[in-house]
C-alpha cells in the first residue's frame, strides 16, 4: 500500500481515535464504556448500555495494547470485571443479560446470541493480554451455557431467547451472529490452543458451507427460516456485501489456524467466491473514490444505495490481507476519509448516509470502533 495511506490511517488511529475513546469514551465512575458520543465529542447518557458494545470496546483496547499501538489494557480489564458482575448470571440464570441501566440494574434480560459472541471474543483477547486463566474458565463455561440456551434444530443456534417466556423465539434466523461466533471461537483457539474451540469453529464453518452459502451463486443471504432455507425466493433475498467480506476473511483465518482442515479446498473456494461476488456487485465507484454498498439482492441487484462505515473497513482489511486491488484500496481510503470522517484531527465519524448522500445519524456510535480498528491496524 502507499506510504501516505499508511500514514493517514495509522496517524488517525493512534494519535486521535484510541486516546479519545479510552479517555472521554470511558466512564470511570461506572467502569463502563460510553455507547455514543456527540459530534462535538461529549458522552451521551443513554437509558441502557448493551453487553455487545462493552465487549467490542474491551476487545479493541486489549488488541491495541497487544499490537503496541495504545495501551489502555488495564482500563479494559477493569471494565471486563465490572461487565462480568453486571451482566453474567445477573438474573440467576445461565448466560449474559442484554443490557443494563445507568444505575447498573438490568434492562434487557433476553439472551442474545450476537452479544454472547462478542463477550467470548472479549474474553479471548483479555486472556491474551493478561494471561489470567480465569478468563478462559469463564469463556469455556459461557460456551457450555450457550449450547444450553440457544440450541436449535437443523444446526447452528437461535438468535435470541427469552428465559422469562420459554419457547418464545423469532421465526427468522440470521447468519450474522453465527459469523461473529466463528470469529470468537477462532480467537479463543488461537490464544489458548484448546481444540475445544477449534471444534466449535469447524462446526460453524461446516454450517456455512452446507447451509448458509447458496450453491451456484456462492452468495450468503442475511435471513433464513428455521430450517436454514433463505426466507425469500432466489433473487429476492437481502445480502450485505460487508458481511460477504467478513466471512471471506474469517474463512481464510480458519485455514490459517487449521491448515490441515479436511475441506480446505472447499473452504478456500467459498472464501474466494464470497469475495468475488461482493467485489462484482457490492462495490461502486464515484468521484470521491470507491464505496461498499449497504445492501444488494442475492442476484446482485442493488437494493439500497445507503452506505455505512463498517463495510468499508471490512473490504479494506480483506484487500490488504489478500494483497489485491491496490487501486480499489486507495479509492476506499479516499472515500472513507472524505465522507465518513468529517475531520481527521478528531475521533468522530459519520456512521451512515442515506441514498441521497445525507448523513442519517445524530451521534457517533462506539460500536463502529471494532470495525475501524480491524482495518486500521492493517495499515500500522
From TrEMBL:
* Superkingdom: Bacteria
Keywords for this protein: Isomerase
The processes (GO biological process) annotated in the record are: carbohydrate metabolic process
Name the enzyme group at the top EC level: isomerase
- The record's EC number reads 5.3.1.8
Entry-linked InterPro entries: 6-hairpin_glycosidase_sf, 6hp_glycosidase-like_sf, AGE/CE
Q: Which GO terms describe its molecular function?
A: mannose-6-phosphate isomerase activity
Instruction: Write out the similarity annotation.
Output: Belongs to the N-acylglucosamine 2-epimerase family.
Q: What is this protein called?
A: Mannose-6-phosphate isomerase
Organism whose genome encodes this protein: Gluconobacter oxydans (strain 621H)
